[in-house]
Specification:
Shape: globular
CATH topology of the largest domain: Serine Threonine Protein Phosphatase 5, Tetratricopeptide repeat
Radius of gyration: 24 Å
Number of domains: 2
Number of strands: 0
Order of helices and strands: HHHHHHHHH
């Protein structure tokens, strides 16, 4: 009797597996092989938000590969490096973001924070002041102003 039940269960599982496989969409439909730079950047932002910095960096790299002029992807990759404690790489990415978009207030603010963490206070103050000059985002302004007030 037990053998019949085991055989019945195994048979049902095999049939269920066959049905699932035959109904599943093709692999390329499930995970697109490519995406736009913006899509990779957004995936990187989501991965960073949950602390998956290596995976986020991979997505930002893909965004940059697709669009080497995408300043936001460099800034966001810099944030991932910052969160990993790799300040040199973070600063390099913020430098590139600013090179591509000299009006990118958030990149100045982020670089200013990293300079502060490294003890480069003159550079930190300069970047935070530039951030305040360029930004109209209340959150960015408040964050930069708070640190600037502490530094003065």
């Amino acid at each position: 009797m037990t053998k019949k039940i085991v055989w019945l269960v195994v048979s049902c599982l095999m049939v269920a597996a066959l049905l699932l496989v035959s109904c599943a969409p093709a692999e390329e439909e499930v995970v697109p092989a490519t995406g736009t730079a913006e899509q990779h950047n957004e995936r990187g932002v989501v991965l960073s938000a949950v602390g998956l910095y290596e995976q986020a960096i991979t997505e930002f790299n893909k965004a940059i590969e697709l669009d080497p002029e995408y300043a936001m992807a460099y800034n966001n990759r810099g944030n991932a490096y910052w969160n990993k404690g790799n300040f040199d790489r973070a600063i390099a990415d913020y430098d590139k973001a600013i090179e591509l978009d000299p009006e990118y207030a958030e990149a100045y603010g982020n670089r200013g924070f990293v300079y502060y963490l490294e003890g480069e206070l003159t550079k930190a103050i300069s970047d935070l002041e530039k951030c305040l000059e360029l930004s109209d985002d209340p959150g960015v302004v408040a964050r930069a102003q708070q640190l600037l007030d502490q530094l003065r």
